[in-house]
Amino acid sequence: MKREINFKEDKIAYKKLKKIIKEFQPDIVHTHASKAGFLGRRAAYKCNVPVIIHTFHGHVFHSYFGKAKTAFYKNIERYLAKKSTAIIAISDIQKHELVNEYNICKSNKVKVIPLGFDLSRFQENKLEKRIDFRKKYLLNEDEIAIGIVGRLVPIKNHTLFIDAIDQILTKTSKKIRVFIIGDGEEKENLLKHCKEKKLDFTEFLVSPKKATITFTSWIKNVDWANAGLDIIALSSLNEGTPVSLIEAQASNKAIVTTNVGGVENVVLKNKTGFIVETNNLAAFSKALLILIEDEKLRTEMGLKGWEHVKDKFHYTRLVKDMEALYFSLLKQ
Predict the structure, then answer these.
(1) How many angstroms separate the CA atoms of 256 and 169, rounded?
(2) Looking at residue 54, what is its pLDDT?
(3) What sections of 137-280 are H helices per DSSP?
(4) Which domains does the chain have, with CATH numbers?
(5) In terms of DSSP bridges, do strands 231-234 and 213-217 run parallel, antiparallel, or are they unpaired?
(6) Which residues pair with 257 in a beta bridge?
(7) What is the C-alpha to C-alpha distance for residues 313 and 116, in angstroms, rounded to an integer?
């Protein structure tokens, strides 16, 4: 099953799902993501599964497609919601969007259960990881490392981040290095954008040299990368619950982010990071500059970040919440 629509392959996947469900006869089918949610819920409903649940990790109802395609996807989700016993939103903001802005379903069908992770690795061997990361990417200890982690796709709006860095370079005497961690369809456009801005940049896998902006491609061990950074940013146009910001706080890093999706449920405004309006270049640049100039503030925000996420987004809490929901729905 692939992310993109493919009628032939999707039909095959749907038939296989029905076969598996008929053989296994589950009491609950719980789906995640758009494609799996569409095929899985349809198959479960056809097989008369007692409880059908779907989790929205994000949505495509703005900033992804044109009006016609967006309306098409909304109608599909409304249809699927009627076939679902419960819908899980991963933040209060997302629930508000699903119920009040996009009319996907009634409020009483939506349960808010935040994501949960094993965050302990972000607190382990931080100094050793920091030294190793900074050695690999030729970082001196007096250089402030700013990172952004995620797919290089239009919705992540990396040009805002790059433009902010371009402005900051003329306003600070601090030595800064920038790391764009991830890969995707927008990479060539972003490289071109850096070139047009006459910024010093490199693709590290192609040319492993020191530069102001380093495109690292994907880094498997995010805890290792985060340990080497000093500030972590997010410039997206749309998000569900931004996992990179949970991981940033688990790594004791100060944050600058746009105010999209569930960001305000993840970041404590002006306490664990700065939240600015989407596409506000001046505000984004100013927030980054404040953190660049103030090491004490970076440290304070980082400490508060870990305290904020260590219980709220831990996997043990997620397991308890999910177990309680499963049993309550089965009783009904």
Answers:
(1) 17
(2) 97
(3) 158-168, 187-196, 222-228, 243-250, 263-266
(4) 7-116+315-331 (3.40.50.2000), 120-312 (3.40.50.2000)
(5) unpaired
(6) 234, 275
(7) 4
Distance CA 263, CA 255 (A): 11
Alpha helices in 231-271 (DSSP H): 243-250, 263-266
Task: Tell me which residue has tokens 């105010």.
Answer: 259
Whether the predicted pLDDT of 2 surpasses 70: no
Say what the pLDDT of residue 6 is: 75
Contact 151, 119 (CB under 8 A): no
71-85 pLDDT per residue, tens: 888 899 999 999 999
**Cα pseudo-dihedral 69, 74, 77, 81, rounded to 10:** -170
CA triplet 50, 39, 110: central angle to 5 degrees? 55
Which residues touch 152 (CB under 8 Å, ≥6 apart)?
A: 158, 180, 182, 183, 184, 185, 186, 187, 190
Query: Cβ(159)–Cβ(152) under 8 Å?
Result: no
Which DSSP category does 99 fall into?
I
DSSP string, 36-95: HHHHHHHHHHHTT-SEEEEEES---SSSSS-HHHHHHHHHHHHHHHHT-SEEEESSHHHH
* Span 253-310, pLDDT tens digits: 999 999 998 899 999 999 999 999 999 999 999 999 999 999 999 999 999 999 999 9
Per the DSSP assignment, residues forming a β-bridge with 178 are 146, 213
For the stretch 200-232, pLDDT in tens is 999 999 999 999 999 999 999 999 999 999 999
Token couple for 146? 């700013």
Amino acid letter for position 35:
K
CA angle 306, 254, 168 (to 5 degrees): 175
